[in-house]
Each structure stands twice: as C-alpha cells, then as structure tokens.
C-alpha cells in the first residue's frame, strides 16, 4: 500500500487488487473521498503484483493514475484504457 500526492494536491492511496477474471490491478482510492480508479498491472500473481507496486516510483504511480486508469467498477476489455 502506498500514498501519493497528485499535482493538484489530492492524496491517493494505491494498493493491489484483483478482478474476478484474474487480472491484478492497482487501485487508487482518494483520501478525501470520492470515486476510486483502477489500472491493470502486468503481474500474474498477487506477490508479483505487490512487488510491481513496490518497485514503482511516485512518478510512475502518478503517470499510471493520470494516463492508464479508469473509474473503479467500469469494465476492462483487456486493452489499453
């Protein structure tokens, strides 16, 4: 689990999750409330996903949040969002 602060000052908690169809995700939960976001990870196992998240810099996570994420609960078609 990680906490990052976006350029707009909003703080997010980032943690690993898994969709029912097996894709590991990084979930972004805004600390001030509001809608969560999600983005796929490359990892095949939970342990690998935790390590992938741990290896990301704050800049990597912000890029993931800004460029690859979509609102939690919306579908993932397996492609790049």
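-> sequence recovered:
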């Amino acid at each position: 689990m990680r906490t990052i602060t976006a350029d707009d000052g909003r703080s997010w908690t980032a943690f690993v999750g898994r969709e029912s169809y097996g894709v590991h995700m990084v979930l972004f939960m805004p600390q001030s409330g509001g809608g969560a976001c999600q983005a796929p990870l490359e990892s095949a196992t939970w342990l690998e996903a935790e390590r992938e998240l741990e290896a990301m810099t704050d800049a990597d996570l912000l890029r993931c949040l800004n460029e690859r994420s979509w609102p939690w609960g919306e579908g993932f078609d397996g492609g790049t969002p």
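The chain has one domain: 2-71.
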